């Protein structure tokens, strides 16, 4: 039995909407929600997205808040089934540029016939195939984000060259359903690669999470199940050749803070969310204080690196979450009270990755040097 | 004297040799935060806010979907790299209040539902300031970055664009206040879609549609479907001919002349005297055409390797290779042999070197002079119906527009040729465009 991986300091994130909740259309409404999360020094906010459902494009709804916020990470869902991988990676990289290194991407797939008919390009497909494609899009996006080395722009007056083309690289990704040549049109974003946040609600998403995610969201009814899910993901990441220390695992918890100060069910405090059926979302119903107890208890037992809260009623619960639960955790010294870093990677304690192509060129160079005749 | 009202737009400096990068460090401090001037968000905000300070109609972004190549390698002499248009414009919706926000988005490598949704989202988040410049592409080179991979027959480009715009408008028209909307069904040559849009009707109803093609098909498409044409006709006579041709096409589509604005892309150079402006213009051209860029321009026409050619010597003796695949990712204008002949004649007539010929023959500035003279020329273009306004392309990032806004706009205002305040809130208001008429598929036959 391998040694369990010790969780990191506490990381907290929140969704800005909930399934079925009405979504606003003005910049002011979205900015108000994101600022609230930033007031609580949360690592990041997420916004899901699905074609044909009510609501604006999620990436744009978060993008419009970027100039009016300074630190909180912005992680929109962008679907991979009916979209272009090249456009997707360019849009996420651009969000990273306009937010000064705060962008993330929540991969999502479009499984329904209704979504397929809005495009008319390909029929609906099984989730397994779509998540396989999503993982391929994540691989292609990672290559394209790396396709400009950080110092590709040289502005060399002597030779008249704006860029050093040896530092621009073809991604040359070929998958089952698409291929992309590259390089990207967008210079390498501030974070190097924006943060990939993978929701593992679908078992088919777990390979993507293990291989490509910086943050994995797990769904568990209690700390033991969460710990098991985390260990499994970290083991899979390690098996895929990754350092498991580069993957943060957060438990998804729907929070309904509409009641009083305390949990409606006594066992909630530290005991875990209300048990639903297998596969149903973990729901906490109660007060902000007991939610803080739950967060502390799970984190103390080493179950997860933190939580991704989904407010049952965003207009009500986001405010109670930040001013109640998060404020209490901060007061108790369990959560940051300000952002020591600037980028989302900083908040998550994740290093800025070097471009895979720069690393490869470095390796080539040393190989050449070694092989040179004396 | 009161002139016809002029419309103005600001083009973010290009990803090509018109944007002078070599010495811009001398003209403005480096941008705050990471990245060079052509990518830093502070550059976009500066230019957009300058345009808004000048009460411009809109801010315009071009698009590139594949880095240009030359001799099978990435072209390295010009500014390259840019943000994704709709994303950066969405961020600019938060740093500006009235300025229209126009994105160039390719109809070949996008799908109507997704793009209609992104444009409507921008229109909502900007409170009615979104515009879409419809372009098409047919080259397999760009296609290598996209699922469709291949390309479109040249002949299908405008049919796809027209069907794309009609489908997007059908989706926008089906939007309902509560976001549920009517189901839309479209079956055509290029698209077959069905479903609900999902967004409420956006403030403009239809984001403004801009079109930039110049072929007869492009003009007809614009006359049928566009709100603005972005043209290249920089001279008064060419502009008048184009203007008349396009406006005359409108009645056949049931449209009035004022429903389509004609806005050529233009450059400007200012000076305190005409002589100083002319000197500045020559100097800018020299900076735009470095010795390396001159050789590159020749290779574009000749289609052969000229790396050993002396840019300060005469033009190449060989004839252009018309079948060359030397240059990729750039639209070719005209027959290379004819262009080479024109350039030889120019070089012989004026005794110009290769580089001087390129400087003389390509991309001369549209308006050169004192602020008053430039204002006069622009007013004359509009009054003589060569244009309804202009899309200004500065040659410096990000403050190339500042001198125009500071020195020319006040003169245009004094002359009664340009607004002194925004009278409306939406881009349609600024452009004086009517509210969109709901169209049906059947009604377009």
UniProtKB/TrEMBL annotation, chain A:
Flavoprotein found in the keyword field: yes
GO molecular function: monooxygenase activity; oxidoreductase activity, acting on paired donors, with incorporation or reduction of molecular oxygen
Pfam family, any one: Bac_luciferase
Luciferase-like domain ranges (all copies): 25-255
Binding locations of FMN: 202
Keywords: Flavoprotein, FMN, Monooxygenase, Oxidoreductase
Organism superkingdom: Bacteria
PANTHER family linked: ALKANESULFONATE MONOOXYGENASE-RELATED, C2H2 FINGER DOMAIN TRANSCRIPTION FACTOR (EUROFUNG)-RELATED
Membership in a protein family: Belongs to the NtaA/SnaA/DszA monooxygenase family.
Protein name as catalogued: FMNH2-utilizing oxygenase
UniProtKB/TrEMBL annotation, chain B:
GO-annotated molecular function: monooxygenase activity; oxidoreductase activity, acting on paired donors, with incorporation or reduction of molecular oxygen
Keyword vocabulary terms for this entry: Flavoprotein, FMN, Monooxygenase, Oxidoreductase
SUPFAM superfamilies: Bacterial luciferase-like
Luciferase-like domain mapped to chain residues: 35-353
Annotated positions binding FMN: 104, 158, 215
InterPro entries: Diverse_substr_monoxygenases, Luciferase-like_dom, Luciferase-like_sf, NTA_MOA
NCBIfam families: FMN_nitrolo
Family, per entry: Belongs to the NtaA/SnaA/DszA monooxygenase family.
Descriptive protein name: Oxygenase
């Amino acid at each position: 039995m391998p040694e369990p991986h010790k969780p990191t300091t506490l990381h907290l994130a929140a969704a800005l909407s909930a399934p079925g909740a009405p979504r606003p259309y003005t910049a002011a409404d979205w900015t108000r929600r994101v600022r609230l999360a930033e007031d609580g020094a949360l690592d990041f906010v997420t916004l899901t997205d699905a074609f044909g459902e009510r609501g604006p494009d999620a990436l744009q709804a978060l993008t419009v808040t970027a100039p009016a916020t300074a630190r909180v990470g912005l992680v929109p869902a962008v679907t991979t089934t009916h979209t272009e991988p090249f456009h997707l990676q360019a849009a996420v990289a651009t969000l990273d540029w306009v937010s000064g290194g705060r962008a993330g991407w929540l991969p999502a797939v479009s499984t329904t016939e209704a979504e397929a008919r809005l495009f008319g390009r390909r029929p609906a497909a099984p989730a397994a195939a779509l998540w396989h494609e999503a993982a391929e899009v994540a691989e292609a996006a990672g290559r394209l984000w790396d396709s400009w080395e950080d110092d590709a722009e040289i502005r060399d007056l002597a030779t008249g060259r704006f860029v050093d083309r040896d530092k621009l690289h073809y991604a040359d990704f070929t998958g089952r359903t698409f291929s992309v040549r590259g390089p990207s049109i967008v210079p390498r974003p501030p974070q190097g690669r924006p943060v990939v946040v993978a929701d593992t609600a679908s078992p088919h998403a777990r390979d993507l999470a293990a291989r490509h995610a910086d943050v994995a969201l797990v769904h568990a009814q209690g700390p033991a199940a969460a710990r098991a899910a985390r260990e499994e993901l970290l083991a899979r990441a390690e098996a895929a050749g990754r350092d498991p220390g580069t993957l943060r695992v957060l438990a998804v918890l729907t929070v309904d803070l509409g009641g009083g100060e305390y949990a409606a069910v006594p066992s909630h405090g530290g005991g875990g969310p209300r048990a639903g059926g297998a596969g149903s979302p973990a729901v906490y119903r109660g007060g902000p204080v007991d939610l803080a107890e739950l967060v502390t208890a799970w984190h103390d037992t080493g179950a997860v690196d933190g939580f991704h809260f989904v407010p049952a009623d965003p207009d009500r619960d986001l405010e109670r979450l930040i001013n109640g639960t998060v404020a209490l955790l901060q007061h108790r010294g369990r959560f940051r009270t300000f952002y020591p870093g600037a980028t989302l990677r900083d908040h998550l304690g994740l290093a800025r990755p070097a471009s895979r192509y720069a690393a490869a060129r470095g390796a080539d160079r040393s190989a050449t040097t070694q092989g040179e005749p004396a | 004297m009161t002139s016809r009202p002029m419309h103005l737009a600001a083009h973010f400096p290009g990803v090509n040799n018109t944007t002078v990068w070599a010495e811009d460090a001398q003209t403005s401090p480096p941008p705050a935060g990471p990245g060079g001037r052509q990518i830093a968000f502070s550059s976009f905000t500066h230019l957009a806010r300058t345009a808004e300070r000048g009460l411009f109609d809109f801010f315009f972004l071009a698009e590139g979907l594949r880095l240009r190549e030359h001799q099978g390698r990435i072209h390295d002499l010009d500014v390259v790299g840019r943000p994704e248009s709709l994303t950066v414009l969405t961020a600019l919706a938060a740093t500006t209040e009235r300025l229209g926000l126009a994105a160039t988005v390719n109809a070949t490598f996008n799908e109507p539902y997704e793009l209609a949704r992104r444009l409507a989202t921008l229109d909502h988040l900007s409170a009615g300031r979104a515009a879409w410049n419809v372009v098409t592409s047919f080259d397999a080179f760009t296609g290598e970055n996209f699922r469709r991979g291949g390309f479109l027959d040249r002949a299908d480009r405008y049919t796809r664009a027209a069907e794309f715009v009609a489908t997007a408008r059908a989706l926008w028209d089906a939007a309902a206040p509560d976001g549920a909307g009517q189901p839309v069904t479209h079956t055509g040559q290029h698209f077959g879609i069905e479903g609900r849009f999902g967004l409420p009707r956006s403030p403009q109803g239809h984001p403004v549609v801009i079109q930039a093609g110049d072929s007869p098909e492009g003009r007809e498409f614009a006359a049928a479907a566009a709100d603005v044409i972005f043209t290249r006709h920089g001279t008064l006579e060419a502009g008048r001919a184009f203007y008349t041709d396009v406006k005359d096409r409108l009645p056949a589509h049931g449209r009035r002349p004022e429903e389509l604005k004609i806005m050529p892309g233009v450059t400007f150079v200012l000076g305190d005297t005409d002589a100083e402006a002319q000197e500045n213009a020559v100097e800018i051209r020299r900076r735009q055409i470095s010795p390396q860029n001159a050789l590159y321009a020749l290779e574009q026409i000749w289609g052969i390797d000229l790396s050993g050619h002396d840019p300060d010597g005469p033009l190449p003796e060989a004839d252009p290779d018309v079948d060359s695949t030397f240059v990729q990712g750039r639209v070719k204008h005209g027959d290379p042999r004819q262009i080479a002949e024109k350039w030889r004649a120019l070089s012989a007539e004026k005794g110009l070197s290769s580089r001087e010929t390129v400087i003389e023959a390509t991309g001369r500035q549209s308006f050169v002079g004192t602020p008053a003279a430039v204002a006069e020329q622009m007013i004359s273009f509009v009054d003589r119906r060569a244009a309804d306004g202009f899309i200004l392309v500065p040659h410096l990032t990000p403050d190339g527009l500042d001198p125009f806004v500071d020195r020319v706009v006040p003169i245009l205002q004094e002359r009664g040729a340009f607004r002194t305040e925004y009278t409306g809130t939406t881009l349609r208001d600024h452009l004086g465009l009517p509210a969109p008429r709901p169209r049906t598929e059947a009604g377009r036959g």
